[in-house]
Amino acid sequence: MSKAREFLEFWMQNSVHPAEQRGAAGASQRPEELKARCIEMAGSQGLTLADLEAEVGDLYKHIEAALATANDEAVTHEVRGGRMVPKAGK
Length: 90
What we know:
Radius of gyration: 14 Å
Oligomer: single chain
Helix content: 55-70%
Order of helices and strands: HHHHEE
Number of helices: 4
Shape: elongated
Number of strands: 2
Largest sheet: 2 strands, antiparallel
């Protein structure tokens, strides 16, 4: 796995959250804000926007899609025992 891919997977898991978690650090629902944060943190790891986009294509669209997925899952799933499981009745 490339350094850029590894960084992105870690960053996305820790920075992209559903809207319900607005109090959580990094729980922004603004893709442009998240993209700027991602680029800044990637830079501290010696990675460029070009490195990131070589892995996922357009970073903005990648973050936007991840937000949509996180928000969809928040509607149909809940965290139980540290795992996402379907909500009762869904």
